[in-house]
Amino acid sequence: MCLVKHFRLKELSFAGFIVLALVVSTFVTPSRAAEADPWTIYITESWFAYPSHIGLRTPEPGDPSWGNTFNCPKWGEDECAAIKDPGTTYFGTVILPPCTEPKATYCIETVEFRNPGGEWEQGELIRSTFGPTHEAVAEIGYPYGGTVSLWRSKNVKHAGGTSEYAVQAALEIREKEVSKGGVEFLTVDMRIQPYTSVAGEFSEQRISSTSYVDATTGRKRNTVGFSSSDVWQDRLGRATQARWIEGSGARLTVRIPDSLTGWLGGRLTDIDFSVSRYADGINRLTIGGNAVVVQSVEAKVPSSEIRKILVNPDLEMKNNQFGFAGYRGSDGALSIPILEKIRPFTKDKSTGDMSLWVVQTFGSEGQKCLADTSRLMGVVTTNSVAYDKFAPKFTDGKLKYSVGGVHLDKDGNLVKGNYDLVLRSDAARCLYGFSNAPIEAIVSVTYGDKEQNISTTASGERDGWLFISAKNFTFSNPTIEVAISQPKPSPSATSTPSATASPTTITKPTSKKTITCVKGTAVKKVSGNSPKCPKGFKKRA
């Protein structure tokens, strides 16, 4: 069940949404009084993104996270004229148009699709939806922003019975002071959604160009309107979500700022990718894979318990008049602990699921050897309800990554987890101080001091990349750990030079050998060129 189904065309304040999202990651608040019993807490993924826009925020004295916010449909005019207050900040979004748009700097080159077990075929652009666009503002580096685009496959149908797909690729602007120069990009978020549509004339996504004064706070606001229950709607029709057919997938080629290249991740499996320089400051990124099924979680929490659940109860209850709070699964710093807090109210079951194709840029948190944004360093994908939108953390000699999920789906079936990591080999060698000789990885899924007893792990190295995978583990809040080693070479062995960083398309290698490891009743299969059992396990004869 998706949080956004409860309302159609709504008006949201820019600052109200953005500040609340930064503080508590609450992204919609439908319809229930804050005093209502119980509250409804969601963890899910949302199709929604703001349309192309740029705005300004003038800070409130003593509280820079609040202030007056203004949409700037025409830069330098009206309330968006040059503002001298050094605390004034930019914010905004750029929706990538197809590259057939002559104004585009960053754009979508191609969209491809494949059936289960099939080959890639190029999609056909149907049209771009009608909605807010924004002209480029060269003086601050804001590029032309378009709208969601619609594509059609010749042979790859989805569960809705048609072969039409919406593509939403959004660049989010890093909020920064105007006085410190032009706009910078924080993330790129790319989603491909199957849909079924009906013809007709419907309200379009819109941004108000006039401000109003909040009667309670006295702050000025612009508003954004959107059809949140639909994939898209405009003057020609309206579309609702459909599901991917299991094993089918898509591949997207985009031109994006090279500052966003470092780490990618999201909701995919069986990935392949390539990256190359398109022009100065622009990379051409291709990434493809199959869609995955992700569980959604909803909990009814008594109002007497809600203060124990919310991250910042005073702020959230003050700004939330409806008794709903939603968290994005990809915001693991919030969604993983929230999931643990609401688990007793969910009976460890989901309330539904979605089939998703999502790719996002991940942060590296400044980790040595993993922080280079000028080239692609790695890709992390999972089907978990909640996950960290960061590269794995290198601590205590291991790469560690946290995920969270529920044990059962809505029908009571066991949910199986998937995790895939593709890491540049020279980054792994940098972390461990290894030479250019071959390296190996051992993967484990742990729950505190307990080993997961139903999982299959694999690792292998090819073409300058290390492939690491853990599949079929059951959920609560496991940590996936990867220990990388370098066997001592034999006297006759020769070192193999590491691959260069030249653009290459990566596909998952075939593991050469699989062994079975046991520890008490726990059983683990480990695959790789020279697989070894994790600590505490013994190889089964």
Tell me, rounded to a whole number, the average pLDDT. Answer: 81
The number of domains: 2
Straight-line N-to-C gap: 47 Å
Mind describing the biggest β-sheet? 18 strands, mixed
Number of strands: 38
Shape: globular
Number of helices: 5
Q: Tell me the β content.
A: 35-45%
Helix share bin: under 10%
In the predicted model, the low-confidence regions spanning at least 5 consecutive residues are 1-34, 492-511
What is the fold's blueprint, element by element?
Elements (H helix, E strand, L loop, with lengths): L8 E5 H11 L14 E6 L8 E8 L2 E9 L17 E7 L11 E8 L6 E2 L1 E5 L20 E4 L11 E11 L9 E16 L6 E2 L4 E2 L6 E2 L1 E5 L4 E3 L2 E5 L7 E9 L5 E5 L1 E11 L2 E9 L1 E10 L4 H4 L3 H7 L4 E5 L3 H15 L5 E5 L1 E5 L15 E5 L3 E2 L5 E3 L2 E7 L12 E8 H8 L7 E8 L2 E2 L2 E9 L2 E9 L5 E7 L27 E7 L2 E7 L9 E2 L2
Parallel strand pairs: 2-23, 19-26, 33-37
Antiparallel strand pairs: 1-15, 2-22, 3-4, 3-5, 5-10, 6-7, 6-18, 8-9, 9-10, 10-11, 11-17, 11-25, 12-15, 13-14, 16-17, 18-21, 19-25, 20-21, 22-24, 26-30, 27-29, 28-29, 29-35, 30-34, 31-32, 31-35, 33-34, 36-37, 36-38
